[in-house]
Amino acid sequence: MELVTILRVLARRWAVVAIGAALAVVTGVTLAPAVASKPAARVQIKVLVDTRASRVVNLGDGAEAIGTQAALLAQAMLDDSQRSAIARGAGIRPSDLGVSVASAVPRPPASPLKKRTEEVAAAPAHPFRLDLLIQPDVPIVTLTATAPSPSLAQRLAAVATGALEAFAASQAPTTARRLIVRPLGAVGSEVQRPGASPRLLAVGTVVLLFVLWCCAVIVVPPIVRLMRGGGGEERRRATPTATSRASSSSAG
Predict the structure, then answer these.
(1) 193: pLDDT confidence band, cut at 50, 70 and 90?
(2) What secondary structure letter does DSSP report for 109?
(3) Inside any domain, residue 49
(4) What is the pLDDT of residue 86?
């Protein structure tokens, strides 16, 4: 019986219900694709920056400076010209590529709230990303390429490694003092699957918003009438009091 009553109320207010349905559809279709996570592939490559004489292995003159030079090479990738060259080499638009450089220096443990805030702030805003991690003690640079597919991530990582090597060669005063960029170990890769389908998320959003709207259509009008009725009752109670005071004054 209650279900029939609810349906009758909604049928009488069909115009308001239709407006709510339209708003729910527009909101769900617009918001769901933006909120839904997109698939992402990551490829990680570690490279060793060294000289032809391999000063990293044979510690000697100038070995301590190679780590600084490796850090400078990684920092150079932040330059717009280098970022644009890497993007063109990977076949993507420069505006779609974000580049960051960080140091692997250990930090004190942060609170869960601060850690979550940093993760949200560091969330990728570009469909393609190149993150370079500098080791503080050894001339090793870790390149992590993020792209929508594994093949694109692999291409971006390879192009970035080549750009790092080419820039190191261009900065050498002589061939003998040229820095060599060598890959270390195997290439690591992973694929991040999307959490929920945008279509499924849109349908769920539309249904939820429409149900909430219908609940408001049913509940809000009785509350408004109750509030108005309470105010009218107070006015009716106040009217006899005012009348009796006027009668008393006239009698006096």
Answers:
(1) low
(2) P
(3) yes
(4) 92
- Strand pairing report for 140-147 and 40-51: antiparallel
Number of domains in the chain: 1
For the chain, helix, strand, coil in percent to 5 are 60, 20, 25
d(CA 203, CA 62): 63
pLDDT at 36 over 70: no
Supply the DSSP symbol for 93.
-
Question: What residue has token string 């559809």?
Answer: 25
Within-domain flag for 207: no
Q: What's the predicted TM-score (pTM) here? A: 0.54
Report the side by side order of strands in the sheet with 128-134.
97-103, 128-134, 140-147, 40-51, 179-192
Please state the φ and ψ torsions of residue 55, each to the nearest 5 degrees.
-70, -20
Q: pLDDT by residue (tens digit) across 91-116?
A: 999 888 988 888 765 555 555 545 44
Residue 180 has pLDDT above 80, yes or no: no
In a domain, 18, yes or no: no
Per DSSP, the three-state class of 33 is helix
Token pair for residue 58? 């044979």
